[in-house]
Amino acid sequence: MSVQPDEPHRPSLDVPAIRARLGRTPWKVEVVGESPSTNASVAERARAGEPAGLVIVAEHQSAGRGRLGRSWVTPPRTALTLSLLVAPDSVPVARWPWLPLLTGLAAVDAVRQSTDLAVTLKWPNDVLVGDRKLAGILAERIERRGGAVAVVGVGLNVSSTPEDLPVPTATSLAIEGRPDVDRGDLLVSLLESFTRWYDSWTAAEGRGLRDSYVAACSTMGRAVRVDLPDGTSLTGVAEGVDEAGRLLVDDGRRVHRLGAGDVVHVRPSGPRA
Q1: pTM for the full model?
Q2: Alpha-helix residue ranges (DSSP H) falling in 84-234
Q3: Which part of the chain is CATH 2.30.30.100?
Q4: Bridge partners for 39 per DSSP
Q5: Nearest residue to 138 via CA among 1, 9, 250, 260
Q6: How, if at all, do strands 149-157 and 79-86 pair?
Q7: DSSP at 10
Q8: What strands, in cross-sheet order, belong to the sheet with 222-227?
């Protein structure tokens, strides 16, 4: 499928300007007109030996995937849709689940720098405006000769209209009254913020990362219902996250430690304490 021509309110990304602004950062940014899935594209390159630092951005993503196999499709130039390749080989595998969480924190930083919106995180890594989803993140571990790497994908709705979005609980910067945000500016801010959090995580075992994540996460301190893969659910208070990024839920009898792969949904069932 060919990409539609630019519309005045949905311009293409200015690739030379983006690369110039990123300067000597580790990122090698490539922008493609269309990709079924940027995560799949980066994973393929990773398996072929691509070094860390690759970023593939798609103007149109036609078959993207979210957590638990959910779809993420973006009309041309309405979203910031990208995947990046990192090699955190100095970090113990037990702490790799922090990758999507710190990416969510970077996305919150980028939106806050570009707008005055009160964006928050929903554990593990959905970016919200109120209770509406603005962005989602998917991280995947790739095994290859020489050591494992990770692909981290981000999909952030920018100029999407309600008709563009798959569910009424999704939103975009334009819907929230910020139609003039430049996707190139947002991309640069996201990569700069990701670099800061990633470097902190790899060099200092995430010192300060957990506190910053908890402060940005609207799930914390709330009564929640957690739907589990076996069809059961548990209710309790989300008290925080542990050193591996797992959600801590106190049901009144004990504290459950829940990884992102252990749950289907986490939904608030009461106000923050």
Answers
A1: 0.91
A2: 98-114, 183-204, 209-216
A3: 220-272
A4: none
A5: 260
A6: antiparallel
A7: B
A8: 255-258, 247-250, 233-241, 222-227, 265-272
Residue-level pLDDT at 72: 58
Integer CA distances (angstroms), 180 to 16, 108, 132, 195, in order: 20, 18, 20, 25
Domain 15-215, CATH: 3.30.930.10
Mean pLDDT in the chain? 91
Q: What is the mean pLDDT of residues 211-226?
A: 96
C-alpha–C-alpha distance, residues 118 and 12, integer Å: 27
Instruction: Tell me which amino acid residue 48 is.
Output: A
Q: Where in the chain is CATH 3.30.930.10?
A: 15-215
Q: What CATH number should be reported for the domain whose range is 220-272?
A: 2.30.30.100
Task: Give residue-wise pLDDT tens across range 147-167.
Answer: 999 999 999 999 999 999 988
Q: How far is CA 218 from CA 168, 243, 266, in A?
A: 20, 19, 12
Q: Is the Cβ–Cβ distance between 54 and 61 less than 8 Å?
A: no
Return the structure tokens found at 204: 């200092």
The sign of the torsion formed by the CA atoms of 109, 110, 116, 118 equals negative
CA dihedral 92→94→97→101, nearest 10 degrees, is -70
Q: Which 3 state secondary structure label does DSSP give 217?
A: strand
Report which of residues 139 and 2 the model is more confident about. Answer: 139
